[in-house]
Amino acid sequence: MKKRVRYIVLSLCMVMTLFFTGCYVRNDEFLKEYNGIIGADNNYALISLQADERIDGYAENLVVVPKDYVEDDTTELSNVASSLYCLDDNSIVYAKNVHEILHPASLTKIMTVYVALKYGNLDDIVTITDASKITERGATIIGLETGDKISLRDLVYCSLIFSGNDAAAAIAVHISGSVAEYAKLMTKEAALLGATNTTFKNPHGLTEEGHMTTVYDVYLMLNEAVKNETIIDIINRTNYEYTYTKADGQEKTKNVKSTLRYFSNQYAYPSDITIIGGKTGTTNAAGYCLALYVKHKDSGKQYIAVVLKASSLDNLYGEMSYLLEFCE
C-alpha cells in the first residue's frame, strides 16, 4: 500500500511540475483519464515509474512556450501554425499558434515509431491480419494483405519514410493487439513527454474525431524521437528497400521513396542548412504538415521546425524554407 501511495504521489508531482513550469497547456480530459490509470492495479506502477524518471530536470531540457506567448508579428509568415526551436540553447526562434488544437495527419507516425521502438522488437516477424487493413480511398499504403509476413523493422521504416498507413496499423496490432489500444498507449507516452494536448485515436493519422495535437506537442515528440539513432537512420533515408513473404509463400521485394520533397529537390531551402529528416502529413482536415530536424552547417546548432495546416504543398514548403532562414 505504501508503495502504491508513493507511485501516485510521484505521478501527481510530475503533473504539477509540468503545470507550473509552463511545459504544457492543461488538458483536463487527459488528466481525468491519467488519474484513472494510476489508480488501476494493473497499470499504475508502470506509468508512475516512468513519470518518476521525468520529474527531475524536466523543464530545463526543453523549450518552454507559455500559453500566453506572443509571437513576433514582424515576420512574413502567413497564418499557419508554425514554430522553430533551437535545441542547443532551448530557445524559441519563432512560434505562432503553437498551442492551437489541430489535426496532425501523418505526423502521428513520429509517435507510432517512437512507441514501437520502445516496446517492440524490430526482428519480430509480423503476420498481417484483417485488423490492420486500411480501406480509406486514396490513403497511402504499401499494399500488405492478410497472411503476409513482414518484419517489424520494415513496418517501422515504411511508416516513417513512405508514410504507409497499413504499415502503421500493422505495428499497432502487433504490439497492442488492436489499433485502438495502441493509440491509447501512444497518448500516454506522448503525455509523459509533456505533450498533454495530444490525443491519438489511431497510429496512422487518417482523420478521426478526437485525433488531435498542437505544433508545440509535435516539437516535444520529435525532440524525443531524434534522440534514438534508429529514428535518425530512418528519417535520413531517401528510399528504403525491403523483402517480405506473401501469404502464398512467395517472397516479394519493394522499394519505397521518402515523402519529404526536400530530398527529391522539388523545393529549395537555405544552403547553410543540413536537413537530417522529418515527417510529412496531409489530409483534408489537417491541411499540409511538416516537422523537420535540421542542423546549421556553420554553427552546428540543431533545430526543430514545425508547420501545420498549410493550404498547399507550395505554401507548406514556402513556410518551412522561410522558417529555416532564421537558423544561425
First and last CA, distance: 53 Å
Average pLDDT reading: 84
Q: Give the biggest sheet.
A: 5 strands, antiparallel
- Give helix % range: 25-40%
Q: Please state how the strands of the largest beta sheet are arranged side by side.
A: 2-1-9-8-7
Count of beta strands: 9
What features would you describe in this structure?
By secondary structure, the chain is an alpha+beta fold. It has ten helices and nine strands. Strands 2-1-9-8-7 form a five-stranded antiparallel sheet, with helices on both faces. A two-stranded antiparallel ribbon has the order 3-4. Strand 7 (about 275-285) and strand 8 form a beta hairpin. Helix 1 packs across helix 3. The N and C termini lie far apart (about 55 Å).
Which descriptors would you attach to this protein?
328 residues
List the helices and strands and how they pair.
Layout: H1 2-21, H2 28-38, H3 44-55, E1 81-86, E2 91-96, H4 109-119, E3 125-127, E4 149-151, H5 152-161, H6 165-176, H7 179-192, H8 215-225, H9 229-235, E5 239-245, E6 251-257, E7 273-283, E8 287-296, E9 302-310, H10 313-324
Antiparallel strand pairs: 1-2, 1-9, 3-4, 5-6, 7-8, 8-9
Compact overview of the structure:
The protein is an alpha+beta fold. 37% of the residues lie in helices and 19% in strands. It has ten helices and nine strands.
